[in-house]
Amino acid sequence: MVNPLSEAKTKIESEQAELKVGRFQVFGADRRAKNRQSQTLAIHSKALKAFEKYLPQMFHEIPSCEKYDENWDRFIEGLRSDCKSEDSYRKALIFVLKCIQKGNESGLWQLDLPTIPLEITRTKLPYDGKWFRKNQACTVFYHQWIENIERYGRVNYSAEVLLADVLFSAIFHSGIQTARTLHLFAKAVASRTGLFSDEQQIWIETELNNAPTNFIDRQGELHSHWRFFPALPTLGLLQRWYRNRTLTFSVPNELEGFEYWLNRHIHQYNAPEITTKQLCSYSQLCVQLHPGVFYPQILSHVASDKFISLGLSHPHWHELHQPCVPQGAQINSITKPAATRTRHKGNARIDRHSLFLSKLRNAIQEKSSATQKNTRQNTLKALTALQAELSLTEVEQILLGWLYHCIAVNKNQPSSLRTYLSRGGMQWLNLCYGENIHSWSSEDFVTKYRALLHEDQSSLCLITHENEDEDPESEPKYSSRADYLAKRIVTLHKYGVRHHGLEPLSEGLIDGIREKPHIRAGYISEPLFRYMLNVVACCATFTTREKRKLECIAIIAFRTGLRLGELIKLRVADVEQSDEMWLYVRTTQLDDTKTDSAHRKIPLAVLLTEEELAIVKRYFRFRSHSQTQSAAALMFPSEAGELIPLSDSDVRSPIQDALNACSNQQWTFHHLRHTAISRLQLLLHRDVLELHSGNRLLGQHLLPWDADRCELIYKAIMSGHPRGDYWAFAQFAGHLSPETTLKSYLHFSDWVSASCIRQAQYEWGFKTRHFFSGVSINQLQSLGWEAGALSYTRCFTEIRTGLQRYIKRINCKPQQLPPVAVPKRPKLDLFAMLEILTALANQDDILPLQTHYQITDDVIKPWGHKIDALKQLKTKRTQHRLFHSSRINDLLPGELRSHAEKEEFSDMVKKARKIYRTNQKELVGWIQYQLMHSNTRNHSLPFRDPEQLKVFIATSLKLVPAGRIRIQIRCSPINEKQWTSGLPAQIDIDKFIDNPNASSALVWIKHPDEAGILQRQVIKNEGIQKFKRYSSPVLFYLAYTIALTLFSVEQLQSWSKNNTLSANV
């Protein structure tokens, strides 16, 4: 009888071995199926290893089930720690249970099977008998309160009674479900805090205490902004309160005192067992049972603080209504980020005498001249000039910007800036220089800053003990010094948080007090995004290729919510070539996904507008055609090569700067992800928010799609999800559960909840209508409100008119969306020509390239004539100079193979252009000699004339370093000086001066990685060195390609007729 556990183990090992070889031989859907099978086998293998660890005797040929019950719980704990996600844990556990069941069926053992858990860590919701009884008690209280108003009315009511009624209405009619927010609302109403309104709703703005923060002010301080949208009955009572200025009441400042006060009013309605907290917590059912209300259950959890979903800050909310229109100076304000300078290995720090620090110290020096003290105005001018003069890394920009902020905003003096730089700025720069600080979490910053403070204190302690005048056993006095340094680092970090998107510190550096969590809540409006694209298109420091790449990255991030790391590693093969353009997010060789849940697929085409879809499709066709044969070719490669990804700063900095140039708020690249996910929440609740029927202007700022497109998107992403719409949000975002999505990315839960609640219809008696409508009896009758259901839509205009003295209008401004910038025609440069010729040589369809570069066959045909002319160049033995006879039909010479050569070739092209602009004749002569003396049989370039050698070397030194050139000279001792004089000492020269009749030289260009190649070939050949040098054809390749663009067909044809150089050619 076969043991099912050992059989499964053997079967998994054999299938994994087959997949390891087989999955790389298939592509597309078959490849994805193999990958899924491989992941499943890995989970099953992990499950069996964990089971064998605790119950090894059950894998024997004759298994033993001894201690099965005792070790089962240990196995469960071990498996849970081995599995990274609940999904993999469930799959692993189910597989083990199936194997045990097979043993039960075969009679090998008889073991009880435990229940398979459906959810592992999800918090159980409190919907039990106690919850329903409490909700029933709250509902009874609500009806008693309404009946009391209807029976006795509210005549000559006191301020205290009216305020209590306002609070009860806020609970039962407007959805406040925590005592903390009710207390905050009560204080705002009692002080008659200003109201805000747009065309659709009225709200109150205030701040929460002891809650996650969502706003950073200009000083870097964190705030938790909160808005309350009152429904109809609450609005009517607010009108009575605000308009009667004689009504005043002081709400207790402490929460306990407030609850004690409100409890007295609750107990007046024969409800002694209900407290304020219970009334808030258990009013959900009453709120949802009002006629007309459809309230998503998950949002009721948010309202009761079981889940967290933070709304937008007040400035962000206002800017959604009234987008900022950038001016001309702002449009031209972004620049290309400086190349990232990485830290050397070890503990190397930034040079204290670097150019940046030297100029920075000069800008904030004590005296502007020998007799004149430096002023704030001169310092400001010097810092501004320094920022424009140097190309700075982001870390240097943060330090410089902080010092500028201190003197411009905080009004510090230059002497203070010098202290700040020496006691905080330099230490911070040493710590962060060359690091990717955007990848550091809040805890990472705290750990590194504390280590920096500890290092500073240790050095001070050592100095103190070395002082002979001090007592070695005395306590060193460095606490005030550490406090000062910590304060400077904290203020510098706050500036980086506010203006460069760094993560806020999670706790204090000295006191260790835990800070409130911060959520970067933000939503980029459609006008802002469109202006941002225009700013990128107008940036003069980017090439057309770079602009197209950034534009496409921004569009995909804005519509799909992909993380920056997921975008950078996106491959051409990850976008499906179909009408839907399914985009697959999966693990690649560059990086793993953030979690297992991050593996997902997104319907790209349906999320894009028509203009955006045309842009993305055009770029995708271009990349699909120009990619290499590698399946790992990137969608957005760097200029260094098809497989080399962009750095984070290459993408983050320009897009972030463009966003900030178009807005009064501070944005980060990650806000694109926040916007894409929050947009789906708006799409789901578009009807109740009336985005297409009510406030159309606001709807245009928030959604780019019409109702029909919204329905298509809903079906593509959310329709049919087995666990509901908000689980579909989580899957779209790459999250395990909706809790993460709600907490960090859905910023309209407060608005959606209020909109759902205010759909209620109220059929009340006359006295109740009169009280909650907030109008007089005569107005009630003249408006016809004494009959028919009262609703928010019916009464909003009249109530807003009554409150207009206390309302600040935030009306949406009609904002004409700027058109997507039409990209300029891509420059048809040398690289474009090589790309097209390579495609022709591979017999590929060049139509996408012709469309991309907007050229016709008439432009391409002359290139073929020039290539034919160059092929006519022959040696004295009538052998082809530039192409071997076996490759005579090729269009280009041998392609540069290594990444180092390709990167070097790009730099050489820039240097050659510089030579052409300054001395055209020099470059022409250099190219002619290179092509008319090359030989396909040898990589060396021959010379018979010493002067010609020196002229050629002089030009070559402008293209490659002298150490890369190798010259072999054969001459007599008499001519040695004639050949070697004037050559740089760094050139590698081999001299053979034993032949009196010799007078020649050969020139090679060393391969950039010659030493590594030679070392590897020795190892490969078991210690035998087959060749002593390894040269590169990069100069020959450069001369050939430039000749195709620089010379006419007639000039190239004349070369083959002449055996000597002609200066007139």
Automatic annotation (TrEMBL):
**GO molecular function (one):** DNA binding
Name of this chain's protein: Integrase family protein
PANTHER family, per this entry? INTEGRASE_RECOMBINASE PROTEIN MJ0367-RELATED, PHAGE INTEGRASE-RELATED
Residues forming the Tyr recombinase domain are 519-727
Under the heading InterPro entries, the entry gives:
DNA_brk_join_enz, Integrase-like_cat_sf, Integrase_catalytic, Tyrosine_recombinase_XerCD
UniProt organism field: Tolumonas auensis (strain DSM 9187 / NBRC 110442 / TA 4)
Its family?
Belongs to the 'phage' integrase family.
Q: Among the record's GO biological process terms, what is one?
A: DNA integration
Keywords, alphabetical:
DNA integration, DNA recombination, DNA-binding
